[in-house]
Design brief:
Largest sheet: none
CATH architecture: Up-down Bundle
Order of helices and strands: HHHHHHH
Structural class: mainly alpha
CATH topology: Four Helix Bundle (Hemerythrin (Met), subunit A)
Number of helices: 7
Number of strands: 0
């Protein structure tokens, strides 16, 4: 390869890297927008839990509704905690209720987040069986994983 071709390829590669690097910075999400995304994720989780609860309480929800609710819970539980709780999205950013302690005690917070996944899997399995009592127990266990994190890392609602 002659020097002109090598130089042209090097220049093109460098340009691509610079565009990708600066483009990534320009596209960085606003922390307040990240808080809104987290809130939407939590609403999805809460909606799923609510659908299961309606079935358990025999308040009009069907087993199929409960299964879809459990799918939503499991989908959230499988998310990476760092994606849901990015640094810089604590209380004071947008409408965040996440305490700074969440990031100060990240390993504990992440452990609590990860505990939700096996609980959600058990919930989904219980729904397949159709026994409201078993589903209720699994729902309670799943809810407990959520509550443990809220207790330690979320500002209490007034």
């Amino acid at each position: 390869m002659n020097n002109r071709v090598v130089n042209a390829l090097a220049a093109a590669s460098l340009s691509a890297l610079l565009v990708a690097g600066f483009g990534g910075m320009a596209g960085a999400a606003d922390p307040a927008d990240m808080v809104k995304e987290r809130q939407q994720t939590m609403k999805k989780l809460g909606g799923g839990m609510g659908a299961v609860a309606k079935f358990v309480k025999n308040e009009g929800g069907t087993q199929e509704d409960a299964a879809k609710g459990a799918e939503a819970v499991l989908a959230v539980a499988k998310m990476d905690a760092k994606a849901v709780f990015p640094t810089g999205t604590a209380v004071g950013v947008g409408d965040s209720a996440a305490k700074p302690e969440l990031w100060q005690n990240w390993s504990a917070a992440e452990e609590k987040w990860k505990a939700m996944q096996p609980a959600a899997m058990k919930l989904a399995e219980a729904i397949k069986g159709g026994d409201r009592a078993q589903i209720g127990q699994a729902l309670g266990a799943t809810s407990k994983t959520c509550g443990g994190c809220h207790e330690d890392f979320r500002v209490k609602k007034q």
